[in-house]
Amino acid sequence: MTEEQIGKNVAHVKAEIAQAAGEAGRDPAEILLVAATKMNDADSVRAAIRAGVDICGENRVQEMLEKNAQGAYEGAPLHFIGHLQKNKVRQVVGLCSLIHSVDSLSLLQEISKTAQKRGLTQDVLLEVNIGNEESKSGFSPEEIGPALEEAAKMTSVRVRGLMAIPPICEKPEENRPFFLKMQKLFVDNCEKKYDNISMDFLSMGMSGDYAEAVRCGANMVRVGTGIFGPRNYT
Ligand SMILES: *Cc1c(COP(=O)(O)O)cnc(C)c1O
Fold it and tell me: Which CATH number fits the domain that encloses residue 155?
């Protein structure tokens, strides 16, 4: 994809976000666009940053380290959005300003331990398996309250909100019930005041359904294909 096309795509996504925010009576400025950059090269990532995405989100540690060494993310914060294995935590802590995909307490503990050794605090989101899918990791909605209580005791992680990937649906509207469930879970847990937790971000919505997600309260959307075109898996 050319830089020009990426620029047009980013402008289109931002316009759709603004429209959806408007419909929901929300300020478009509060919604952050995360470019899901997996399988796109450093030049494409740089083009997206120049076009005005707010954040870059990577899925695979190795790929992220390679692109980072090429200076791909200069000018934008870097987030981790993919499944994170415990043995890769030390490569992500400190490099990424937010890890969206914390799917277990043991991973959270590992992140805290690593951050503590480095003398820093790592911001994270808890991933919710909102469709209760076998194939997906994440906390069940019922587990979020207890997980936040545990997280509040950890010294070197700070939970900043929730993230979800709902089941694959044919039409964006079909995800609405899942997005609304997430919104409720987010709002309910915002009201409880835990130490050292600040429920700021609700990360949900991808290329096929980010507008719906925004209408249901998302303030971080993760868009890949809608910016960079289809990924080449061959
Ligand atoms: C790839 C990916 C996205 C973006 O997916 P698209 O459908 O290409 O927009 C968002 N979130 C996560 C966690 C991803 O892995």
Answer: 3.20.20.10
